[in-house]
Structures are given as structure tokens and as C-alpha cells.
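Researcher: Re-running this chain for the archive, since the previous output was lost when a drive failed. Same request as before.
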Amino acid sequence: MENKLIIDEFNIFDFECHENYKSVRIIDEKANFPISWLNTQGYCEYSLYLEYCQGVSTAPTQEMVEGTEGH
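Model: Regenerated C-alpha cells:
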């Protein structure tokens, strides 16, 4: 795994990618997931499992495209 830097205005963090979960970063020995997962969690926890644990991906539906354009 390649270490990268996450930089905010106060700190620089080294992190590692989690070996089992896509997009999860290990910072200071703690797993950190993207904030966007919380929006997905409100929609469907099973979709998180399929996408990030099982690697299943699907094309966006028309409703998803329209919803994204609205935001």
C-alpha cells in the first residue's frame, strides 16, 4: 500500500489504505471512511456493503442522475 498525505490547514496526516474496504483510510491506527458514506447509509446500508466490501458497482439510474443535478 502506498502512503499519501492528507493536508488540512492545521495538520498533515500519513495514512494507509484499508486492505478490505475501498476508500477507508487508516490514520493513527483508526479506520476513517468518507463522509459521503453517511448519505449512502441513510439510503441503504446494504448498498454500502455491496459497493465497498464486495466491490459491486452499477450504473446510476435516471433518478440518481436527476438528483445529483439538483444538488
